[in-house]
Task: structure prediction
Amino acid sequence: MTSLLLSGLKAGTLTITLNRPERANAFTLELIGELQTAFTQAACDPQVRVVVLTGAGRVFGAGQDIEEIKSHGDTLSYRQHLLRTYNPLVLQIRQIEKPVIAAVNGACAGASLGIALACDMRLAAHTASFVVGFNGIGLVPDSAVSLLLPALIGVGRASEFTFTNAPISASQALDLGLVNRVHPAPKLMAETQILAAQLAAGPVGTYGLTKLAFNRAVLSNLEDVLNYEADLQEMAGKQPEHKEGVAAFLENRKPKWNTDSDLS
Result:
């Protein structure tokens, strides 16, 4: 059976690879659980000095696997889902006292965007793109996207890219401050490993304390925001717009947001 998560430790750098390329590395409950375990172990392992997170194949991550959500029918509580999955994962990434680098090798959308934004730095392939995604299926941003995206690019731009669901190219992301560096796709992992090695050779304990300082200064309300996102998502998930958005996604068509028609 193919592992959903690949990992390798070399010279202090732990590289974690999301390994569902046939499903665009979309998150399932099992994959999220394995990723949480990987970060728990990394936090406790003194050999791990830097963590690199990337995706297998040509996609970083497509967010939540919609088909898995659909399989629960109307029984799934989006609030409880977030409290079990993305909320603790985002907190793990922010609270681990070691640098975490996202190597964004391709498309990055939805919850995968939130996970990438939670990392300390983002390096992107020139072919990478970023899509907020949530409004496109009648949901609100979660996985701390509602906090981290405006913090990085401003509320106006965050609103534009969320409402329009327009993709952000790697070059745009660099100009906006969404990513730190852009590299040719074939060189992304090599360049990421060079940066990771540089950090691993540095004062990692001090980096960890600096993360705590940044968290207090800029993200002190992170847990409250995650909790509020869960409340809003619970409401959004029960709306007709979400039902239509999911149906359109699965049927590979544009949603019909006509408020004059009965979407229920």
User: Anything to note?
Assistant: The chain has one domain: 1-185+204-264. The longest helix spans residues 29-44.
